[in-house]
Design goal:
Layout (H helix, E strand, L loop, with lengths): L1 H12 L1 H24 L15 H12 L12 H37 L11 E4 L5 H11 L6 E5 L3 H8 L6 E5 L5 H6 L7 E4 L9 H13 L4 E6 L5 H6 L4 E4 H14 L3 H9 L7 E5 L9 H12 L2 E10 L3 H4 L6 H13 L7 E7 L11 E6 L1
Parallel strand pairs: 1-2, 1-4, 2-3, 4-5, 5-6
Antiparallel strand pairs: 7-10, 8-9, 8-10
Helix pairs in contact: 2-3, 2-4, 3-4, 8-14
């Protein structure tokens, strides 16, 4: 009951509530007033519609207040006409205020959206936290690999003008929230609780992985179902990111070092990798479901089927594995950062046992038996 009273009090404080109440009051009093002033002066035979009915009087009042004026009814006596003038002036003012207030709400919301200040109402969307040169490539890859419409929310501290210019490059709806993405309040504004996944980029203003670790903790605190992919800079951060329950950790250094060596020692491989990773290439790498009829059958049969029927080259299979609970991955390490992570996890009160991790088998033996829930990794 107290909560209901608080809600009513909050609503009453809003200017639009008072205006709407005043509008209904004028409508009701106007209908009753014109009914008593004009009801005795008219008979049903004089007009098809008259003020003899309270319903008709209320109809005339709202038509007059909104300045529609159908002309099917009109007062004939002097008191009724004076009263009608009062109704007209009151209605015009109140309707104008209601229209202006509603328009102001939508305009304000649009302005706040354009400045990244409005709460996001997307569901099953992807958050991209941070900002660096990989942003555009990441978004294009998401668009290219997504089989259905995908919603993306950017969370960073860039200026609204820069972000608005950036999102115009893409043909999908991209929203953004401006703020420190390591803060839970900002993540909540981005609706992380309903997000499908979050990609944490190494921010160009950021020199280490501490912010990525804190952000991962915040995301997992708010939503255990949000898959977290982290671009990391320091390999020493792996154990901390794992304890923060990051689902996937990506290091650019490994890829760049490999590509540099491959250009010298294994010509052709870098070109193939670049073509596979290019979202505009016809030879892209993708994952596809395996038909249920191949469950329990050897890999060579699946390979032949995909090659002959689908014109796809199967590189291997993948399966989603459940991760261990947090108590199984926390160690007895007594470093300050370990203690901080452990404290945050205990405060959250969650056992992150329902998080998922992808396991892959590349180039399995011909006799490898396909398991339920496995998918195929293929090149078109």
């Amino acid at each position: 009951m107290n909560r209901l009273k608080e809600k009513i009090a909050e609503l009453w404080v809003q200017p639009i509530t008072k205006v709407i109440v005043a509008l209904f009051a004028v409508w009701t009093l106007g209908g009753i007033g014109i009914f008593f002033l004009e009801g005795d002066l008219q008979t049903p035979s004089e007009n098809a519609t008259s003020f003899n009915s309270l319903i008709n009087s209320l109809w005339w009042t709202i038509v007059t207040m909104t300045t529609v004026g159908f002309g099917d009814m009109s007062p004939t006596g002097v008191p009724g006409r004076i009263f009608a003038i009062v109704i007209m002036m009151s209605g015009i003012g109140l309707i104008a205020v209601v229209t202006g207030t509603i328009s102001s709400v939508f305009v304000t919301q649009k302005i706040r959206e354009g400045k990244g200040l409005e709460k996001i109402n997307f569901e099953n969307h992807v958050l991209i936290c941070g900002w660096n040169r990989k942003m555009e490539h990441v978004i294009n890859s998401l668009i290219n690999l997504s089989k259905n419409k995908i919603d993306i929310v950017l969370v960073n501290e860039e200026t609204p003008d820069k972000l608005n210019a950036f999102v115009q490059k893409f043909n999908i709806k991209i929203r953004f929230v401006i703020g420190d993405y390591s803060e839970e309040a900002i993540l909540e504004k981005a609706n992380v609780k309903k997000a499908n996944a979050a990609i944490i980029l190494m921010d160009y203003k950021q020199g280490n992985d501490q912010k990525a670790i804190i952000t991962t903790l915040g995301i997992k605190h708010l939503s255990t179902d949000c898959k977290t992919i982290v671009y990391a800079n320091d390999k020493d951060s792996i154990r901390y990111l794992k304890r923060a329950n990051a689902d996937e950790i990506i290091f650019d250094d490994d890829f760049e070092t490999f590509m540099a060596a491959a250009h010298i020692l294994a010509p052709g491989i870098p070109e193939v990798i670049n073509r596979i990773l290019d979202y505009n290439s016809p030879n892209s790498l993708k994952s596809v479901p395996i038909p249920s009829s191949f469950i329990g059958k050897p890999f060579n049969e699946l390979f032949s089927y995909l090659r002959s029927r689908k014109k796809l080259i199967c590189l291997g299979v993948y399966e989603i594995h459940h991760k261990m609970g947090v108590n199984e991955i926390l160690s007895a390490d007594t470093s300050a950062l370990d203690q901080f992570i452990e404290k945050k996890l205990k405060q959250a009160g969650h056992q992150f046992g329902n998080s998922d991790k992808t396991g892959v088998v590349i180039n399995p033996d011909d006799n490898y038996l396909i398991k339920p829930n496995e998918g195929a990794l293929v090149i078109e």
